[in-house]
Design brief:
Helix content: over 70%
Pfam family, one: Band_7_C
Family: Belongs to the band 7/mec-2 family.
Shape: rod-shaped
Mean pLDDT: 83
Protein name: Putative stomatin/prohibitin-family membrane protease subunit YbbK
Organism: Candidatus Paraburkholderia kirkii UZHbot1
Number of domains: 2
Order of helices and strands: HHH
Keywords: Hydrolase, Protease
Distance between the termini: 138 Å
Radius of gyration: 48 Å
């Protein structure tokens, strides 16, 4: 007789070996569970750090854009004021050059002179008064010398 093959139908190892095999399987499962939990915590920390980094970047970019917007707004306001002042100066210059312009300047200087005297009298207890207070025209004339340049023109004109 010749045996070509054989088959084991039931194999029952001793209880100690079964217990050792079961302990090894349990240890392997616990090891995999610990590794999976550790990888999960690691990925959580990575995600938290990436989120904090992205939040800091977004915040700084927002603050940067806010500063740029504020600076541009202030620049536009300064430019608008400068343009308005330039237009006002041009209109005053044109008005002075028109008929009756110098008379209007004389009147304005006289009004400001009288107003300045009134303010000095209100605010201070010391008042400097010119020697000849009754000669208002000479005081106004001396104030107008500041307005007129050499040759009778307006200051700044050649």
């Amino acid at each position: 007789m010749k045996v070509l093959r054989y088959e084991i139908k039931d194999l029952t190892p001793p209880k100690e070996i079964l217990h050792a095999m079961q302990a090894q399987i349990t240890a392997e499962r616990e090891k995999r569970a610990l590794i999976a939990a550790s990888e999960g915590r690691k990925q959580e920390q990575i995600n938290l750090a990436a989120g904090a980094r992205e939040a800091a970047i977004q915040k700084s970019e927002g603050e940067r854009q806010a500063a740029i917007n504020q600076a541009q707004g202030e620049a536009a306001a300064i430019l608008a004021v400068a343009e308005a002042n330039a237009q006002a100066i041009e209109k005053v210059g044109a008005a002075i050059q028109s008929a009756g312009g110098m008379e209007a300047v004389n009147l304005k200087v006289a009004e400001q002179y009288v107003g300045a005297f009134g303010n000095i009298a209100k605010t201070g207890n010391t008042l400097i008064v010119p020697g000849n207070l009754s000669d208002m025209s000479s005081m106004i004339a001396s104030a107008l010398t500041l307005v007129k340049g050499e040759g009778g023109g307006v200051i700044g004109k050649s």
